[in-house]
Amino acid sequence: MKLATLRNGTRDGALVVVGKNNSVYASASDIAPTMQAALDRWDEVEPKLRALAEQLEGGQVEGTPVDPTQMMAPLPRAYEWIDGSAYINHIVLVRKARGAEPPATLETDPLVYQGGSGVLLGATDPIEVPNIEWGADFEAEVGVILGDTPRGVKAADASKYIKLIVILNDVTFRNLIPAELAKSFGFFQSKPATAFAPFAVTPDELGEAWKEGRIHLPLNTYYNGEKFGDPEAGPEMHFSFNDLLQHLTKTRAYTAGTIVGSGTVSNDDRSRGSSCLAEQRMLEKIDSGEFKTPFMKPGDTVKIEMLDKAGVNIFGTIDQKVVDAD
Amino acid sequence: MKLATLRNGTRDGALVVVGKNNSVYASASDIAPTMQAALDRWDEVEPKLRALAEQLEGGQVEGTPVDPTQMMAPLPRAYEWIDGSAYINHIVLVRKARGAEPPATLETDPLVYQGGSGVLLGATDPIEVPNIEWGADFEAEVGVILGDTPRGVKAADASKYIKLIVILNDVTFRNLIPAELAKSFGFFQSKPATAFAPFAVTPDELGEAWKEGRIHLPLNTYYNGEKFGDPEAGPEMHFSFNDLLQHLTKTRAYTAGTIVGSGTVSNDDRSRGSSCLAEQRMLEKIDSGEFKTPFMKPGDTVKIEMLDKAGVNIFGTIDQKVVDAD
Prior knowledge:
Chain A is α+β, with helices and mostly antiparallel strands. The first copy, chain A, has helices at about 35-40, 40-60, 90-95, 175-180, 240-250, 275-290, and strands spanning about 1-5, 15-20, 25, 65, 80-85, 110-115, 125-130, 135, 140-145, 160-170, 170-175, 195, 200, 210, 215, 220-225, 225-230, 260, 300-305, 320-325. Chain A folds into two domains: about 1-70, no CATH class; about 80-325, Alpha-Beta Complex (Fumarylacetoacetate hydrolase, domain 2), CATH 3.90.850.10.
């Protein structure tokens, strides 16, 4: 089942069910007015939403054509947005890029940070860059949306708390990171609003590709119209979403609608390209002694999408343009 | 005007207006169902809430007696919870306690971190401590709740975005901090759910005590029934809330209902005591060579409140007991 949030002039938009081929949607407002409302009463509303999805697929309910620019982020604001960094290859490369060592516990203790969740961008919203000296970068990631999740979940039991899967662009101002991390309180100004592809899908929508808390499909990123990377999101996700949930719930519980990200998808195999500019730049530096690819500037575009084995664009496309903001 | 959130079996509770002497409340559900709903339409609902507050004060509306245990956090879940660390004395002491240097930019660049906001505790909710080895500590703070706040706010214009003032207990697992900060992604497991006093008040409720983005009153903390600290929250708040807002809005905007904390209130004058155990412990270590006061264990109690010049308990009392959770 695919869900989305239709722009309707309100802060949180209107919940819609989207057909499997992404072309039409049906209003789900009679079942739950918003995505958050659906997640708040998930056990009750999920069967109703699935029934509506079947009716839409079968033609018993008339669909309205999908206009991606009319879709907001699945959750236009969320109660929590927690981003992991679960691909070891990414951690090693970006730390090298800023002259930092990977943490000693790299392979045993997940890296996560709490992100800003009050303003989340839709798939075609512009990336505002007030200052190109800040080093604007994209980061293509996969993520999950939780139902109510108690403290103390073990990885083996974690998958039942994962209600929806998303893909996202964790926009980052690279050049603001070193000074922030030097203060030891983590990222803040270096992480502006995150953008999401329009469709949030239930795990079964991925079929065999959803396995043991990982998504076994490539995540495609296009930068200024050219393929930039298509790394596999599955095998090299060192900590699965199940592992991340065990880590997150050690000391607290989460409300329905909490979003958890994988971190930048990254493969050791260079032929798969990268999901962010920082990795590409570091590889250039290793090979040639200097960074070549500049960070993003107004006019640059980034597209992120994930196709299933049959070629269906599962989540719809993140399709953003960088704009001068001030 | 004082607002609160009444427990009613729903996730977000019911908005009520509270009388100035804290003894009675009146339902505000006809104006806005929840605190978040009120903040989402603040300009429209504020005058109506103020009118109701006047009617309650004047006796034209009958009040219901306040039972503090029936109050949830003003926002039982918030879209963002951002905590500063604006009292230099606190930063210096707690860093010394864990053998770390204060950041080089201590007096010029505010320290803030993004906290978990999906589960916020009411004033009398227990503090769950699954493991006493984690070093559970309280941190008494003041905070503000924002209306919609754009990117790029300057300190001089910031006060208009501050709609409500709160006090809070930023519970911290001290012994989980060093390993987390060593990974450089900031606090996460070391920060379980934060607790809030029941009443969120408009700035005018503080009269002269609200000045230039600071609250010029002492914040009282009682630990196991004894006064633990009563530091002044105003003069030594090195970065005011206005300064913090300028810092926060450098790269992004905030939705209504975003909560911003001051960090642990702390004075250089030792006779004012402390607002957390970590400071007290560091002072013991400086004086005697060893930490004496242990961190919290099941059965310990912490009370936090702030009185105005007339002795009125402005926000109501945070009154929590530590419980063994697992």
